[in-house]
């Protein structure tokens, strides 16, 4: 007779001392062998056999549902408002070299440097007479360039980080290094990513150098004023502008004239290049949509991002290039996937007015919006993200919840909870109205198509419909 | 040397074969067929997902790998999970002839202590229940004796007398609480024997079962009423009359949470808390049911009837797999699939020794003459069978019955109080709603298949034609003289054709009627108010 029965001596399965760890799930990423030995120390024994876990699929589904609900419960995106300006915030700039600082300019000519962590003004830059229309910081983070409707471009020294911390009072004010007065009002400014040039937009596009009092180059195509300008993050000599003649124009500094231009049905308010795929840019349009373009192929948008119900005023890409934030005239801020047709997130508060400028923070975890109500608002980029130091076990739990939500995202219950956002009433109404209008338009077109000769009416996809023509 | 290498090679081959088998187990079924997909984006996403699944299955299977290496290479690594028990006869020795005394001589002292007989002749017959980790046992004597025993320390935690009939005991989610079915009502006690609740709504309960994933306490009372009570909120999740009379045969299918009831008419019904009609009603025996048990993989059910038969059923096809002669008052499946049957003072354990659902005799055990076995329960994660009988309760060793490796986060026999508290919270967060109880739990989390569209007119016509053709071609039987006339034959054929046509015509009529009714309603609606009085009244 050969016989063996299960026999467990308590010594092998219980810890020796009371201060031995019982659960060390943060050790899980270690290699298998190390893990095995650790598991023996901590007296945790695993058996992954499905037969000892009954109804595991139902349990997982319930967990996914709970994860979706928890995400909703913890969704508190608003961190705080930065109050200080006395007029609407018209422009913002982030410092690529310093995470905590953000510059904002207002309609009354006030420029402020904010410390995001304390949400206080660190420094003021007085001097502009009219509205500050453009702000930009050089890539090394030393120089701030501002321009405004008073036809002046001002260069400022950015205070060093240590100064910022010591001088907590808002009385700190700086003087411009240089002031250049030019012929006409400016609408926007942007600094080259790699170099010492910056471009201003107004009646024409001017290219300036740090130490020249006059533009070194000027581009003009058409007679309408240019309202936004953005340098390409990958190729320092390429920039894109949009003008009030509804055009988007690409320039190459190495050439004497602009390269390409498309004319759309409505004006583009702002442009942002995707920092990870610098051939692509997204244009924030007056019709409430954003259009992602491949700069080599401008006859068709790569993606149309719809959801805003009014003009999109500003757009900024996350440094990861996977998301961008938009601020709109409909008093909301939305976050889109770079390839998503609809927004992932909508932020709004009762007191927030028309949003004129938005920025993604340089660590991709915050969003700052500046609006008509003179405030800057700080939001989390992921509404339910846990701030502060996250323990490894917490991180694992978050990852597990994310995976669960991803796995069950198509099931109606989970989908409904994950997708639901509370909308302000005017936006909810406007959205449904726009849906009705779109349906009516579609129906009409279908009928027209049905009653005309086959092939005589072609349906243009939305990606191409709003583009009038491309000029080279 | 070459020979050794060859052995090594064969061993490795074996290991990889077994690893493949394990991976298959952890994959939990086939992956999606990606070839049929046209959407490239979806295909890419799914293929990434499938790869992830196969990887995780491989990792899980590798956790067993150390075990395999030990088995074949005889390396004793102390890192590995423990191996299951076994009992093998040598030569012509039969396993079912081996006595418990012989086993106790061969095993270690710790294991031999697990064989015991507790004689309590006055308070008997006893019923038993284990916690899911197998550490604690609740015993209930018919005459009112209730006790909680720590099976690891072999010490009584608490025992008390309720001074009325106790018909059944059941642990709730952990050892802190248990329910006892007493003379008039079931009660919930905590571990110290303090009465916490009296569940009057249940009535005089005969059997209690706890569904630990759903936190539901299920009971069947004297009038054949099935109650489900949520123990977290105290609300009644379901209250159904079975309408099949008094029964004390009730068992939860651990695979899907469905409750099986065995009735005096020989039927087995299966219930869920969200439907008032049974999910399944199957005639299993020609006589009253006496016991019922479910295998933990959900495919196998064992029933015993008063018709002197024990039957094994395949729950996927609802068919009999095997029939054994003999009575059984109580049945239980172990974690590894052994089936224990108890009748009178005799216990028989059947085993699936070939691994192909072909049960045969594995072990037997006879108690002292006159003992009446009332309840058999395998202890989880141990090679132990507990027996509740008329003279007390006993425990015997059944090698190979328990799962050798427990999972600390599923059921931990060595749980500390802190771990228990944490687990209580976790399991409450993962509490399943009663709707998740269904016959096929793998359907949860899947998409409903699209409805089949109605067959078109043409399809229906071809179907009718085919049916008529089939009848026409049928050869008529030759009848006696006079009934075989061509006229009669024609008539008969015509009748057969009409019979085939009839269901189609009936369906058509029904549909027409439905559409006519719809039309009528719409007509009524379209009439303006001023003209309504002129509308033709429905024929009365």
TrEMBL record, chain A:
The keyword Ribonucleoprotein applies. Residues 442-461 are annotated as: Disordered. Keywords: Nucleus, Repeat, Ribonucleoprotein, WD repeat. GO terms for biological process: maturation of SSU-rRNA from tricistronic rRNA transcript (SSU-rRNA, 5.8S rRNA, LSU-rRNA); protein ubiquitination. It is found in: Nucleus, Nucleolus. WD repeats lie at residues 82-124, 125-166, 219-261, 305-346, 348-389. Residues 381-467 form the Sof1-like protein domain. InterPro entries: Sof1, WD40/YVTN_repeat-like_dom_sf, WD40_PAC1, WD40_repeat_CS, WD40_repeat_dom_sf, WD40_rpt, WD_repeat_DCAF13/WDSOF1. SUPFAM superfamilies: WD40 repeat-like (SSF50978). GO terms for cellular component: small-subunit processome. Pfam families: Sof1 (PF04158), WD40 (PF00400). PANTHER family: DDB1- AND CUL4-ASSOCIATED FACTOR 13 (PTHR22851:SF0), U3 SMALL NUCLEOLAR RNA U3 SNORNA ASSOCIATED PROTEIN (PTHR22851). Belongs to the WD repeat DCAF13/WDSOF1 family. This is DDB1- and CUL4-associated factor 13.
From TrEMBL, chain B:
GO terms for biological process: maturation of SSU-rRNA from tricistronic rRNA transcript (SSU-rRNA, 5.8S rRNA, LSU-rRNA). The keyword Manganese does not apply. Residues 439-461, 473-502 are annotated as: Disordered. PROSITE patterns: WD_REPEATS_1, WD_REPEATS_2, WD_REPEATS_REGION. The keyword Transmembrane does not apply. SUPFAM superfamilies: WD40 repeat-like. WD repeats lie at residues 282-323. Residues 361-441 form the BING4 C-terminal domain. Residues 474-491 have a biased composition (Basic residues). Keywords: Nucleus, Repeat, rRNA processing, WD repeat. It is found in: Nucleus, Nucleolus. InterPro entries: BING4_C_dom, WD40/YVTN_repeat-like_dom_sf, WD40_repeat_CS, WD40_repeat_dom_sf, WD40_rpt, WDR46/Utp7. GO terms for cellular component: 90S preribosome; small-subunit processome. Residues 450-461, 492-502 have a biased composition (Basic and acidic residues). This is Putative U3 small nucleolar RNA-associated protein 7.
């Amino acid at each position: 007779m050969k016989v063996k029965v299960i026999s467990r001596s308590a010594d092998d399965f219980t810890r020796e001392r009371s201060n031995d760890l019982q659960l060390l799930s943060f050790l899980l990423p270690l290699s298998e062998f190390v893990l095995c030995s650790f598991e023996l120390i901590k007296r945790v024994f695993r058996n992954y056999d499905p037969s000892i876990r009954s109804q595991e699929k139902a349990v997982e589904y319930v967990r996914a549902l709970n994860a979706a609900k928890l995400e909703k419960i913890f969704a508190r995106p608003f961190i705080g408002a930065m109050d200080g300006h006395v007029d609407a915030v018209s422009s913002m700039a982030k410092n690529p070299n310093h995470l905590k600082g953000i510059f904002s300019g207002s309609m009354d000519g006030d420029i402020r440097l904010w410390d995001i962590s304390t949400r206080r003004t660190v420094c003021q830059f007085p001097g502009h007479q009219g509205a500050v229309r453009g702000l930009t910081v050089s890539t090394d983070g030393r120089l701030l360039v501002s321009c405004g409707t008073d036809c002046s471009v001002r260069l400022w020294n950015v205070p060093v980080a240590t100064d910022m911390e010591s001088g907590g009072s808002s009385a700190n004010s700086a003087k411009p290094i240089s002031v250049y007065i030019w012929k006409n009002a400016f609408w926007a400014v942007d600094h080259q990513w790699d170099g010492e040039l910056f471009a201003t937009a107004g009646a024409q596009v001017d290219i300036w150098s740090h130490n020249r009092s006059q533009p070194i180059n000027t581009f003009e195509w058409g007679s309408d004023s240019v309202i936004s300008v953005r340098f390409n993050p990958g190729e320092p000599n390429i920039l894109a502008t949009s003008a009030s003649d509804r055009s988007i124009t690409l320039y190459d500094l190495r050439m004497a004239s602009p390269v390409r231009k498309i004319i759309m049905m409505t004006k583009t308010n702002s442009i942002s290049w995707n920092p990870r795929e610098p051939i692509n840019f997204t244009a924030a349009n007056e019709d409430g949509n954003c259009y992602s373009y491949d700069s080599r192929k401008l006859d068709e948008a790569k993606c149309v991002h719809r959801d805003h119900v009014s003009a999109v005023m500003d757009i900024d890409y996350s440094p990861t290039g996977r998301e961008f934030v938009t601020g709109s005239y409909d008093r909301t801020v939305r976050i889109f996937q770079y390839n998503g047709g609809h927004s992932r997130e909508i932020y709004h508060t009762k007191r927030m007015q028309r949003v004129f400028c938005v920025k993604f923070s340089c660590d991709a975890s915050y969003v700052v919006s500046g609006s008509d109500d003179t405030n800057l608002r700080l939001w989390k980029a992921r509404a339910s993200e846990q701030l502060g130091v996250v323990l490894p076990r917490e991180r694992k739990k978050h990852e597990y919840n994310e995976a669960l939500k991803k796995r069950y995202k198509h099931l109606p219950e989970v989908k409904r909870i994950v997708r639901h956002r509370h909308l302000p009433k005017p936006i909810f109404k406007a959205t449904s109205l726009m849906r009705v209008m779109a349906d009516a338009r579609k129906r009409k077109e279908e009928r027209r198509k049905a009653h005309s000769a086959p092939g005589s009416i072609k349906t243009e996809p939305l990606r191409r419909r709003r583009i009038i023509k491309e000029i080279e | 040397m070459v020979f050794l290498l060859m052995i090594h090679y064969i061993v490795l081959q074996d290991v990889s074969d077994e690893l493949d088998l394990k991976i298959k187990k952890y994959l939990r079924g086939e992956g999606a067929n990606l070839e049929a997909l046209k959407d490239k984006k979806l295909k890419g996403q799914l293929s990434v997902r499938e790869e992830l699944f196969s990887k995780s299955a491989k990792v899980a299977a590798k956790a067993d790998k150390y075990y395999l290496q030990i088995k074949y290479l005889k390396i004793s690594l102390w890192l590995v999970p423990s191996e299951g028990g076994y009992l093998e006869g040598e030569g012509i020795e039969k396993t079912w002839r081996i006595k418990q005394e012989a086993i106790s001589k061969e095993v270690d002292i710790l294991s031999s202590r697990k064989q015991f007989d507790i004689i309590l002749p006055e308070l008997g017959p006893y019923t038993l229940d284990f916690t899911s980790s197998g550490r604690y046992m609740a015993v209930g004597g018919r005459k009112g004796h209730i006790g909680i025993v720590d099976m690891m320390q072999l010490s009584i935690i608490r025992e008390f007398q309720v001074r009325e009939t106790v018909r059944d005991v059941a642990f709730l989610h952990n050892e802190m609480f248990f329910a006892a079915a007493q003379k008039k009502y079931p009660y919930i006690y905590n571990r110290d024997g303090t009465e916490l609740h009296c569940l009057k709504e249940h009535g005089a309960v005969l059997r209690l079962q706890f569904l630990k994933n759903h936190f539901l306490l299920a009971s069947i009372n004297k009038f054949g009423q099935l109650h489900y009570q949520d123990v977290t909120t105290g609300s009644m999740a379901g209250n159904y009359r079975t309408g099949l009379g008094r029964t004390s045969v009730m068992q939860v299918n651990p695979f899907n949470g469905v409750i099986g009831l065995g009735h005096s008419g020989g039927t087995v019904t299966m219930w869920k808390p969200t439907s008032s009609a049974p999910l399944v009603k199957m005639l299993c025996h020609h006589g009253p049911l006496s016991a019922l048990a479910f295998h933990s993989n959900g495919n196998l059910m064992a029933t015993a009837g008063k018709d002197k038969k024990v039957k094994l059923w395949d729950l996927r096809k609802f068919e009999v797999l095997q029939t054994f002669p003999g009575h059984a008052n109580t049945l239980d499946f172990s974690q590894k699939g052994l089936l224990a049957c108890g009748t009178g003072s005799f216990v028989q354990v059947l085993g699936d020794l070939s691994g192909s659902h072909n049960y045969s005799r594995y072990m037997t055990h006879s108690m002292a003459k006159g003992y009446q076995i009332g309840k058999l329960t395998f202890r989880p994660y141990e090679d132990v069978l507990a027996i509740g009988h008329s003279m007390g309760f006993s425990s015997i060793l059944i090698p190979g019955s328990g799962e050798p490796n427990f999972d600390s986060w599923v059921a931990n026999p060595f749980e500390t109080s802190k771990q228990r508290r944490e687990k209580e919270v976790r399991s409450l967060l993962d509490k399943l709603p009663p709707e998740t109880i269904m016959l096929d739990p793998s359907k949860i989390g899947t998409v409903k298949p699209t409805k089949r569209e109605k067959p078109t007119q043409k399809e229906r016509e071809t179907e009718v034609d085919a049916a008529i053709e089939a009848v026409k071609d049928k050869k008529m039987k030759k009848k006696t003289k006079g009934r075989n006339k061509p006229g009669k034959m024609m008539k008969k054929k015509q009748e057969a054709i009409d019979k085939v046509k009839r269901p189609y015509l009936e369906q058509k009529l029904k549909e027409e009627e439905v559409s006519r009714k719809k039309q009528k309603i719409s007509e009524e609606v379209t009439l303006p108010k001023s003209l309504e009085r002129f509308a033709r009244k429905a024929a009365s």
